[in-house]
Write a structure and sequence with these properties.
alpha/beta, Rossmann fold, pyruvate-formate lyase- activating enzyme, OB fold (Dihydrolipoamide Acetyltransferase, E2P), 3 domains, 5-stranded mixed beta barrel, 13 helices, globular
């Protein structure tokens, strides 16, 4: 989402205002940050960066701005540090803000709720300056109605709003015709798509079906992903549609957050481990080749050692191909910020490392099982290993292979896996001209 938002910011600055991008921060006259309030560490970096930029203002003329996901408490502080602070829904107004430089009204705590339904539509109409020639992101939905107690999204993005499906399909078709190979449907809660417009918009599985049908009719090769869904809205129909259509990638990111039902209840996740297990069994039954990624928080307020062990147990049960593990940090405005952050930092780190080691055992076993098989991949760029190119399988498993043919970057190819580690695989290029896209 952050990358997708940044691509639209770039469009406004370059196309609407005539500015030119520079890779050298010291050459820039306008410097901005697209923030993410999900973790405190990211916001700490914003404070560090603006302090550095403000020192430069003593020597040169500089305009700074901040947008993205920003909690109200942080926003009030940042208003004093940045020249411009605005919501992503207000991005179309950026030229006027810069034109009237210095005239910025403080954002009230409920402003996002008031402006999002009207303004987010203008934001969606901005054509991004895509940062990649083969990978693109399509926002389909904004905001979240779930109000997980640890999460800031409803306070930074507002309530759920679904983008018209006609616009989504139009953007998808344009990207496919331009040769994009990996396209991701984006939202804070993608599989609740359409629920805010019941009777006036199609559902998420129906949207996926439209994408799949277009893929069948198209002569182009591409994979479509989506992120992030919520287990509460992950219906059997969603999984059935993914299984039916080859162009819908067989990779699912499904955040579990904890392996303990009491912790999940305290998080207000509105799903249980039993619910999650049913979804996983449906995935295994209908899409046995699918890889599954997840998000997990360790050290949530009040999490006991026994409750953490329950999370370790589900890691062993579900054998995720990737788990994005976060050490809990309270977010101002979220409900849990009112509770004691009573798990010591050292204990959080310990649990983080234990769970990471558990994950690595399973990713290593899975990657080892890939050895000897041929997989279609998208070549993503030069690898850190000299003389190698890097690629991603349909299941987003990293692989590399010996080649210096940079014309392969952004294209499909076939790779036979020869060796594997816990976090990546290595192989050899086979049958470059005729990749077996659909495995």
């Amino acid at each position: 989402m952050n990358i997708s938002d940044s691509e639209r910011v770039k469009t406004v600055l370059e196309d609407d205002m005539g500015f030119t991008w520079t890779d050298n921060e010291k050459d820039a006259q306008i410097l901005g940050i697209v923030a993410c309030s999900v973790r405190q560490k990211a916001i700490d970096k914003v404070y560090s960066k603006i302090a550095e930029w403000n020192k430069r203002k003593n020597k040169q003329h500089l305009i700074t701005f901040l947008t993205g996901c920003i909690l109200p408490a942080d926003r009030e502080k940042f208003l004093k540090m940045f020249d411009l602070v605005f919501t992503m829904a207000d991005l179309p107004k950026l030229p006027d803000m810069i034109g009237k430089y210095g005239v910025v009204s403080p954002v009230s705590l409920n402003r996002i709720e008031k402006i999002a339904p009207e303004s987010i539509k203008d934001f969606w109409h901005i054509t991004p300056h895509y940062s990649s020639s083969y990978q693109a992101f399509i926002p389909i939905q904004n905001g979240c109605d779930k109000f997980c107690t640890f999460c800031a999204v409803p306070y930074t993005r507002g309530r759920e709003i679904s983008r018209p499906s006609e616009e989504i399909m139009s953007e998808l078709k344009i990207l496919v015709e331009k040769g994009y190979k990996s396209i991701t449907l984006l939202g804070q809660n993608v599989n609740s798509y359409g629920l805010d417009k019941r009777g006036n918009e199609i559902s998420f599985p129906e949207l996926l079906r439209k994408v799949g049908e277009y893929g069948k009719q198209s002569s182009k090769d591409f994979w479509v992903y989506f992120t992030s869904p919520h287990p509460r809205d992950m219906t059997d129909e969603v999984i059935e549609v993914i299984a039916e259509y080859p162009h819908l990638a067989k990779q699912i990111h499904l955040p579990v957050q904890s392996g303990d039902n009491k912790v999940l209840m305290k998080m207000n996740r509105k799903h249980t481990i039993e619910d999650y297990r049913e979804i996983m069994h449906t995935i295994w039954r209908l899409i046995p080749q699918a890889t599954v990624f997840t998000d997990i928080i360790v050290g949530f307020t009040g999490e006991s050692e026994e409750q953490f062990e329950n999370t370790r147990q589900i890691m062993d049960e579900f054998k995720f191909n990737m788990a994005y593990i976060a050490q809990y940090s309270p977010r101002p405005g979220a409900a849990s910020s009112r509770w004691d952050d009573d798990i010591p930092r050292d204990e959080k780190k310990k649990r983080f490392h234990q769970l990471s080691e558990d994950m690595i055992r399973h990713t290593y076993a899975y990657n080892q099982s890939m050895i000897g098989n041929v997989y279609p991949v998208i070549v993503t760029g030069k690898d850190r290993k000299e003389g190698y190119l890097s690629a991603l399988t349909e299941g987003k498993i990293i692989t590399r292979f010996p080649s210096t043919e940079e014309s392969l970057i952004g294209q499909f190819a076939n790779v036979r896996i020869t060796t594997a580690s816990a976090m990546s695989t290595e192989g050899e290029l086979v049958n470059v001209k005729e990749p077996e896209l659909i495995s």
